[in-house]
Amino acid sequence: MFLEVGNLSGLFTIIILIMFGPPLLFIIIGAVVRRKNKKASIVLFILGALYLLIGLGMCFGSF
Q1: Fewer beta carbons within 10 angstroms: which end of the chain, N or C?
Q2: How far is C-alpha 13 from the geometric centre of its chain's CA atoms?
């Protein structure tokens, strides 16, 4: 079973992926777009940083 009552490592992995997955994706997309459109890349970098701050604050605030 993926999420047994005694084994919550799958749940911890899902929480970590939710916290760090989208910001990393925003940063990678921002780096690729930077060559063509600098303004759009700055917006993506800011969104990635904001998502990371909110994700870390919301998730680690409950532990």
Answers
A1: C
A2: 13
Q: Residue 56: what pLDDT?
A: 77
Residues with Cβ within 8 Å of residue 40, at least 6 apart in sequence: 30, 33
Count of beta carbons in the 10 Å neighbourhood of residue 32: 11
pLDDT per 10-residue tile (average), the chain, 63 residues: 66 84 92 92 92 75 57
Which residues, 6+ apart, have CB-to-CB distance to 36 below 8 Å?
A: none
Burial of 60 (0-12, 13-18, 19+ CB in 10 A): exposed
pTM above 0.85, yes or no: no
Domain ranges for the chain: 21-61
